[in-house]
Amino acid sequence: MEIIYNERNNIKSILGKQKPSSDYRMMNFVVQDDTDDGGLVLYNNFTKSAWVLNKSEKDALENLDTDHPTIKKLIEGWYLVPKNFDELKTFQQVRDIYNVVYENSNIDTGLTSFTILTTTECNARCYYCYENGCEKATMDKQMAFDVANFIKKSSKDKKNIHLAWFGGEPLFNYEAIDIICNELSRDGYDYTSSMITNGYMFDEKLIKQAVNLWNLKSLQITLDGTRDVYNNAKSYAVLDENDTRDPFSRVLDNIDLLIKAKIKVLIRLNLSPENEEDIKDLIEILSKRFANNKYVHVYCHTLFQEISKVGTKRAMSDKSLEECYDRELEIQNLLFNKHLASADALPRSIKMNHCMADSKQSVVILPDGNLTKCEHFTEALPTWGSIYSNDYNQDIIKEWERLYPYKEECRTCKHCPSCLRLANCPNIVEECSSEYRNKEEKLLHKQLRYTYDFWKKRGRKVLKQDKELQQAKSD
After folding, report:
1. Rounded to the nearest 5 degrees, what angle is found at the Cα of 38, between the Cα atoms of 33 and 44?
2. What is the rounded end-to-end Cα distance, in angstroms, of the chain?
3. In angstroms, what CA-CA distances link 240 with 13, 199, 203, 344?
4. Mapping DSSP to helix (H, G, I), strand (E, B) and coil, where does residue 26 land?
5. For the chain, which end, N or C, has fewer CB atoms within 10 Å of the first or last residue's CB respectively?
6. Tens of pLDDT, residues 106-135
7. Between β-strands 113-117 and 80-82, what pairing exists: parallel, antiparallel or unpaired?
């Protein structure tokens, strides 16, 4: 038996040793794939370990020969468990203990992540934008100064502060960004920032400012397709009259400028049944321009406009949903093969929160100074406070932390230990579809295969540096 990843010591210490049994089975949270030499590669999504068996060890596993040394190790490593073992109940218990002991969930560390909407105005008119119809607001100068003061007041120290600029189009009001960063920098606060932007308004001068003042480390830009498709989807209402380039060309040129400034650019491709072939054409364009660039990562996101949170019903048929997930995986494979994306690494820790919405260290600041937990639903969901008051609505905050209970299907879902479903999120329905579970299991198999191949290329040595694996592009 060989090891790709050891189990996490903190998980192992909580689990302890198994009680002896006379009848064993494979844990439901284990993913397995055959190797080219007739062996087996295993990943335990509970303990976060990955092991490789040779052919004779695989045969011993199939026969459940409990006297075989490798089978004894599989029992010790919680790959094999008693037939009556309740992995779901055990996982919940381990996660609760892990949260208290290792995550220090009851210790007030202050706020460290601030998502700031400088404006809800935008220079584009994307047909799919969730902010269509929302009331427009822009942060004025005094509000920007007050936001900076709130950040200082809410942070326990002057280090490790992250600012995420959001909109609308945040560059539509970059003056607010300047004020906030100047105030923090003047008082010695150590911060980094990221941004969600369409990228159109950048130029060399603004990028220099983003590096030197904003400490901008990364940003996300969405591309909806090739030139004509993109320009039609964005329908820019505000354009630079002095620039003869079309928006698509300008944004690609700006991506070049950003990566030259060593700002990481995450390019999101919006995928739908109607634009699959055009997205493939776009990938060819991006590959010629950005392949193997360590500052560029491309991924695709399916637009599920047919899916809404109305009870647990979906307007999209199960067949259509499955086709969407398969299409998304196909595009992700293409991006990897075109050297535009690194393969996803296997999960290596217990997931303690779904996103910033249920994180105690994160907050969203609206242009008017009100506070909320999610930047995507600023009008649909209530705010829980203001930068001007310490009187926060704890009921709303706790509601964002509430999870849907585990279902019977979770017991056999290999993705379960990596899954948290926020009950308050409009994008998450309580009933998890079999199509979604199948998609996540396919993704785990893909991650396992990539990790196994990477491990072989690195001389079959135990992997310790997750970052190296995540950043490696297809050879």
Report:
1. 30
2. 27
3. 60, 13, 11, 38
4. strand
5. C
6. 556 689 999 999 999 999 998 877 667 678
7. unpaired
Structure-block tokens of residue 213: 């003042």
Q: What share of the chain is helix, strand, coil (3-state, %, to 5)?
A: 40, 20, 45
Q: Which residue has the tokens 């089978």?
A: 71
Q: What is the dihedral of CA 160, 388, 392, 364, to 10 degrees?
A: -50
Residue 136 CA to residue 131 CA, distance in Å, equals 9
pTM higher than 0.85, yes or no? yes
Q: Are 271 and 303 in contact (CB under 8 A)?
A: yes
3-state DSSP call for residue 33?
strand
**Residue pointed to by tokens 């296997």:** 346
* AA identity, residue 9: N
* 48, amino acid identity: K
Task: Kindly tell me if the per-residue pLDDT of 425 is higher than 70.
Answer: yes
